[in-house]
Amino acid sequence: MSEINTAVAGVGWYQRIRDCDFVVATLVGVGNLLLGGMLFMMCLSSSITFGGPTAADTARMHDTSRLAQSVFFGWLLVGLLLFGVFRMTRSVITHLACMIVPLIGLVVVSAASR
Questions:
Q1: Torsion sign, CA atoms 13, 15, 16, 18
Q2: Which domain of life is it from (predicted)?
Q3: b/e for 52-73, b at 16 or more Cβ within 10 A?
């Protein structure tokens, strides 16, 4: 009898997480836009040089760009995996929509800094 109650209680937390999809989607959207803006500004500020860029400046720009891309794609994949496991469709759609806009900005800045 206690095994049945444990199984039902185990499903309860999963359902509670799925019921909070709207709130989670809102928080994910705000967090993604803040993270995307921070990564965009990080790439943008690393490409600002006074005068001609030296070899050290160029290396710093490429290192910063690689770091931003690693953080960005890691965040994107972990978010899609996590929200996919919990079947939170609003959060998945919000995550994708809010991550595509900064991706375009990162690609433009990376191409301009080369």
A1: positive
A2: Bacteria
A3: eeeeebeeebeebbeebbeebe
Amino acid at 96: L
pLDDT tens-digit map of 5-36: 555 555 687 788 888 889 999 999 999 989 88
Backbone φ/ψ region at 87: left (φ over 0), alpha (ψ -120 to 50), beta = left
DSSP 19-36: HTHHHHHHHHHHHHHHHH
Instruction: Tell me if 104 sits within 8 A of 42, measured CB to CB.
Output: no
pLDDT digits (tens, 9 = 90+) for 51-85: 778 888 888 888 888 888 899 899 999 999 999 99
Q: In terms of C-beta density within 10 A (0-12 exposed, 13-18 middle, 19 or more buried), how is residue 39 classed?
A: buried
Burial class (CB within 10 angstroms; exposed 0-12, middle 13-18, buried 19+) of 18: middle
